[in-house]
Amino acid sequence: MRGAIWWVRRDARLADNAALAAAAAAGPVTAVVLVEPVLTAQGAATRWRLGRALATLDADLRARGGALTVRTGAPDSVLPALAAELGAAEVHALAWPEPRRIAADEAARAALDRAGVRLVLHDGATLLPPGAVRNAQGQPFKVQSAFARAARALGVPPPVRMPARIDWRPAPGKPLPDLAPDMNRGATVLAAHARPAGEAAALAQLHAFLDGPVEDYAASRDRIDRPGGTTGLSAALAVGEIGPRTIWAAVADRPGSGPQKLLSELMWREFAWSLLVARPDLPTANFRPEWDRFPWQGDGPEAEAWRRAVTGIPLVDAGLREMFVTGTMHNRVRMVVASVLCKHLLTDWRVGAAWFDDCLTDWDPASNAMNWQWVAGSGPDAAPYFRVFNPDLQAQKFDPTGAYRSRWLSPGSGYFEAVPRSWRLDPSARLRPVIGLAEGRARALAALAQMGAAG
Ligand SMILES: Cc1cc2nc3c(=O)[nH]c(=O)nc-3n(C[C@H](O)[C@H](O)[C@H](O)COP(=O)(O)OP(=O)(O)OC[C@H]3O[C@@H](n4cnc5c(N)ncnc54)[C@H](O)[C@@H]3O)c2cc1C
């Protein structure tokens, strides 16, 4: 048998991986990672996290007699050459239907076709094949609850079994380079605070959550002062150390409000991917075109204070610091920091989404874009813009002990060691709010009225 290439992208796992299973069925497997433009264009934190996932996968493969083969360059030139070198007739990869990835995959497919090599994309990055969930008119859903009902009715396929035996055939290549040299000193801080990487760690994390915390998930998931109320699996999902179907299968038959709530949150991720597939411009364009008239302020000093986590609004600064230090942020706080940016600071959601793209280790192009548009009001099934979160009331409600704010606002949180020195932040500075909450709210509502009047 001529063997096949398993082209590893955001699927750093051996289990529940249809691409690996298909490659293994074709003979010896060469597991390949490409340092390519789609990867290098991604944000720093997500590249850093992907680097850790791939390094751990490489160690897992070495323990089984394999290794990752690393090559540099665009897939449409590197893959045909590698296939020729190996005599491989097939390349298998897990589909990741993000616009840049789709375009690069199409170019790779055309080049491989010319070389007589088949590129096969498999599903498994989402619960159901992207684009499969449609309404009675055959259109994608715009309302999440209806989408989730229809998706559940279709039934989530079980995870793919890992092949019992895989013959690994690594090819010569260089070691995996540092994928995020631009993290600079932030990398050391992140390494000290991020969760462990790898497939085994993700599975252990899932099972530890299912062994207890899941029962209380529906009630605890918003308590930001009590860590451990959520799975913490988003970064592992984003780099594919665990497949969503593995989580679904482990949770689906459990009774109780906690497990059911977890399934419904996974359906938000699923909805986001269905939106991105239907509207590839979701990360860059207002889903609802009337939002093109909204009088956003430019990316000015208020937005910069937000990015640097020095707005003087405690919950906002705490959340943005948590993200800088850990690469993630609690969902409740993401909603508040995004709301303050789009409403009190009247800043275009794309400014905030771009900052998250760069800072999140769990960056997911679909979830990030959908959630930003949800908060801003420009998305489908979005929160109405006039519903303006008051960050102080949110803090009282979800951080009643103040533990979250104390942790992330303390000078010893790690934040000041992680940020660029050029920001010249003073840990002992007493911050004044960049805007009064009542003033910001009134300004936001006036802008909304102006958009309405312009319509
Ligand atoms: C402005 C904004 C930006 C966001 N950007 C991202 C992003 O880039 N990547 C990302 O994975 N999530 C994003 N989210 C969604 C959510 O905040 C994270 O998925 C969640 O905090 C991850 O923590 P967890 O794994 O412990 O979640 P859990 O509560 O344990 O939930 C389990 C899984 O369900 C999914 N999920 C939960 N909530 C959502 C949601 N609102 N939307 C989509 N999927 C969800 C995630 O895959 C998550 O890992 C964003 C939310 C907001 C408000």
Count every helix, treating DSSP H or I runs of 4 or more residues as helices. 21
Q: Which blocks of ≥5 consecutive residues have pLDDT under 50?
A: none
Q: What series of H and E elements makes up the topology?
A: EHEHHEHEHEHHHHHHHHHHHHHHHH
Bound molecules: flavin-adenine dinucleotide
Major sheet: arrangement of strands: 3-2-1-4-5
Q: Percent helix among the residues?
A: 40-55%
Overall pLDDT = 96
Q: What's the CATH architecture name of the domain at 289-454?
A: Orthogonal Bundle
In angstroms, what is the radius of gyration? 23 Å
N/C terminus separation? 64 Å
Supply the helix-strand structural class.
mainly alpha
The first-level CATH class of the domain at 289-454 is given as Mainly Alpha
Q: What's the shape?
A: globular
Q: CATH fold name of the domain at 289-454, please? A: DNA Cyclobutane Dipyrimidine Photolyase, subunit A, domain 3
- Largest sheet: number of strands, sense, barrel closure: 5 strands, parallel
Q: What's the number of extended β-strand segments?
A: 5
Classified in CATH, the superfamily of the domain at 289-454 is: DNA Cyclobutane Dipyrimidine Photolyase, subunit A, domain 3
Characteristic terms for this protein:
455 residues, Serine Threonine Protein Phosphatase 5, Tetratricopeptide repeat, 21 helices, binds flavin-adenine dinucleotide, 5-stranded parallel sheet, single chain, 5 strands, mainly alpha, DNA Cyclobutane Dipyrimidine Photolyase, subunit A, domain 3
